[in-house]
Amino acid sequence: MQFLANTLVLASIYGLLATGYVIVYRASRVINFAHGDFMVLGVYFFFSVLSIIGSKGILSSITSAITAFLIVFLLSLLIYRILIHPMLGQPVFVIIMVTIGLSILLHGVTVFTWGAEPKSLISYMGIRNASISFNTVALSTFDLAFIITFFTLLIGLGLFFKYSRVGIQLRAASENPLFASQRGINIYLLFAFSWGIATLLGAIAGILYGANTHTEPAMAFLALKAMPVAIVGGMYSLLGVVPGAIIVALAENAVAVYFDPLVSDVIPMVILLIVLIVKPWGIFGKEEEIERV
Question: Domain range spanning residue 46?
């Protein structure tokens, strides 16, 4: 049971990050390789605001988190407008290379500003990460927070895309950008909005993960491991994130427990290669996406 609980926690981590990939891809057909670095920036902005406030506790942590979310959201919109927007219409490979370059740049800025050494985020928050037991299963407070946050946000985003005006416009823009534009929908504003929302999801995942373990620039690799989750589930499908996350997390945990923890880090990429060979459009994806994937 503990194995399954740990798998669910890892699936929630990957799922939250993979949702960001799906949102950006659905809107603009771009895989954002800088997603993990935006996640790290959100964590370090949170760390900086918390340090400036100088007090600990839930209220200070919530205030710092909201401030960090706002900063990283606005920063992502600015970067999108400067770097990504002018590239729209170019071959997808070109835009992907831009996001890879952006990832390298953001990583360098993060290391230069905050250093590369790990930091204990929970000690600055002043919140006890207590262990909660359910019979033979033990999870930390932030483990539970990850699970609850992931499924709550996934359901909320599903309802948002299905029923809200902006969500419907985003779906229309993703299906047929030209027709949506002719109907008066500002597709470029929607693309920027989806970029910002994905960045927020990354920041949320980063703060929860950093509080549960530690914070360092190298944790951007976590988002790279979440990319196969989005592709396994289907880059168009929010629903596909759930089985994709469970498959990847289950395989990675099984290798870590029964074989070698050092090998487990490559399992998401192994699964990615298998899926690209067998069913490159993913579980809930569309078959015509094969060339783009």
Answer: 2-289
User: Which residues is 137 bridged to in the sheet?
Assistant: 134
Give 134's strand partners: 137
Q: Does residue 191 contact residue 173 with C-beta atoms inside 8 Å?
A: yes
Cα angle 292, 221, 26 (rounded to 5 degrees) comes to 30
**Structural domain tally of the chain?**
1
∠ Cα 245 284 176 (to 5°): 120
Contact 244, 233 (CB under 8 A): yes
User: What proportions of the chain, in percent to the nearest 5, are helix, strand and coil?
Assistant: 75, 5, 20
- Express as a percent the part of the chain with pLDDT over 70: 97
> Residue 3 pLDDT > 80, yes or no?
yes
- Rounded to an integer, what is the distance from CA 95 to the centroid of its chain? 19
- Residues in CB range of 144: below 8 A, 6 or more apart: 132
User: Tens digit of pLDDT for each residue in 113-147?
Assistant: 998 888 888 887 877 777 777 778 888 888 898 89
Burial classification of residue 127, based on how many CB atoms lie within 10 Å of its CB (0-12 exposed, 13-18 middle, 19 or more buried): middle
Residue 40 contacts residue 219 (beta carbons within 8 Å): yes
Taking each helix axis as running N to C, give the angle between helix 187-212 and helix 2-28, from 0 to 180 degrees, rounded to the nearest 10: 160
117 Rama class: left (phi>0) / alpha (psi -120 to 50) / beta: beta
DSSP annotation of 279 reads: -
Place of tokens 């289950």: 250
- Tokens standing for residue 148: 């609850």
For residue 109, what is the domain's CATH number? 1.10.3470
